[in-house]
Please model this.
Amino acid sequence: MQKQADVVIIGAGVHGASAAYHLAKAGREVVVLEQKEIGGVASGRSGGIIRCHYSTEAMVRLALRAAQLWPGLDKQLGHPVDFVQNGLIMMVDEQDAETLKRVVAMQKRLGMNTDVISMGEAQGLVPGLNPDGLALASFERDAGYADPYTAATAFGRAARAAGATLHANTAARAIRVENGKVTAVATDEGEIKTSVVINAAGAWADRVAAMAGIDLPVTPGNLQMCGFEPNYTGWTSKTPTWVDMPKMTYARPDTGGLVLCGGGLGENESWEEEKPNPDSPPSKPTDLFEAEMAENLGERIPWIVGRPMVRSWCGLDGSSPDFHLIFGEHPQVKGFINIVGGSGNSFKLSPATGEAVTELLTTGSCTYLDQHAFSVTRFAENRPFRGMYRMHIVG
Amino acid sequence: MLHIVVCLKAIPDPDVPAADLKIDGAAKRASGGSYVINPFDENALELALKLKEAAGDVRITAVSAGGPEAADRLRKALAVGADAAVRLEPPTEPDAFAVAAALAGAVRRLGDVSLVLAGRQAGDWDHGQAGGLLAELLGWAHVPFAFAAAPAAGGLLQLTRETAAGQATVEAPLPLVVTATNHADCVLRLPKTKEILQARRATIAEYPAEAVQPRTRVRALRPAAETGRRCEMLGGADPVAQAEALVAWLKERGLLAGGAER
Model:
């Protein structure tokens, strides 16, 4: 184990691996400590959707930067990430229709390739779509999806090629803080002297922060996905991803032809009941989630009724109080930088977060990431992210 | 009225990643991930539900010997359509005879049961014995590896079962024990959200433990020994060179019989 590094990154999911890649390319000496395998927890279980449709400017700007990077990422990293550009349709009911128009206007102003469309046009894009209960939609042409596990390992490989050292099956055991500054990270194989620690520990984010004496408002939350096997020629790997906002349910194609879906209203309920233990996580989604997905999909794309659910899976990520990323140096400990709290919604941002943390450490300012909006201080200062839609946690 | 008992077992998710599986050698227990209904028991439950749809006057009681996880999984059985659920205290050892005796006790206590459905084996220990032992203890016939069941003339039950050569159809009178195997025709249906929420409020009967001595005892439980893998990457710029490198490697270790040059 190295005795010294410029930066120690705890966690090699997509954010940790992306940070390692960007920092190593910028010439920093980087060590990554991953307690399991690269991309092994949240990143490997993500739905992999890449979109910019959010209703806050800070999120749109960051997501736009990431969306710019996704199509060329495989060439940049020298390893496939299986990005597919299929577009994304956001659908709302009558109550959110005016909001959708305002949100799309804002998004267009920021440069997104998106438009308001009618439900009739949405039906043209997703064959067999049942528009009942929905009033209006938007179509984000450049949205897509990627293979999240492959993307994490791609970042990992590129980071190694750029000179970073990644240790899998190696946990951070302690973080030394002296006079309010990070000085070292301890592992079972010795201590690494460093003045910068990046917390990219997903579901363990609060535990890692506690090692530095920080009380971080991130709790583990289980994100669930399932896959149905259709028997319908209208569904291809390029059919747009669709989001049924009132039911908080989304579905996208995958390269194997399945209908992958996630979300649902029951998910939030399960988070309130009990905090999952990341060291003893659930391995299957709840019965309620599977039932809800079958029902919501059956209503929205009736051609899926009776088709088998061939797969269901889940993974823990760290959730923040407003379900948005926490990014930046923590005010209490100099050199302790968070890229956590993605709440199962931040895979898409990973090419941009690695870039942003490198800018932060090099110049102090970020081109695309609004540090003030994403700072952990937003909670104490009562200015959390709040989406404009009725279901404001959608973002 | 046909009263069917479906026996199901809550087991640790067979798909849990190895890194999350915990083996407690002292307590001789394995855990990790979520508990699921043993997949073959789900097939048995689906057979029962299809029989109910075909025959009409059918009552299904789901029975499981286990701890709180058994009660939790019984609620899924209720949600998909079982009419009642009973939890039994599990035997002190994962012994097929003790489980079969406990299940037989429950069947007798229910009184009017004439068909018992269960999975052919459980995905944790894979003994595959409880169903057959249960039939013996009840004095009933046993049809194994069934994947379809339908009422037949004369009060018989028609079963389609998997055989080494393909499949066979048998007719059997009740009372009967049938163990199910997996097949596209008996994948357990998904419950509806409304029924899941209703099942949360349902009462699950608890029958007292039968004092049955297990006939086997687990002496030790430990993870498979780490074999310690080694991997040597052989070089070679193209397939021909790589093949030559492999042949040389094998020869050096005396692993090529005859040693004939090619």
Summary: The helical segments of chain B are 39-55, 68-80, 96-110, 130-138, 193-200, 239-252. Chain B has a mean pLDDT of 92.
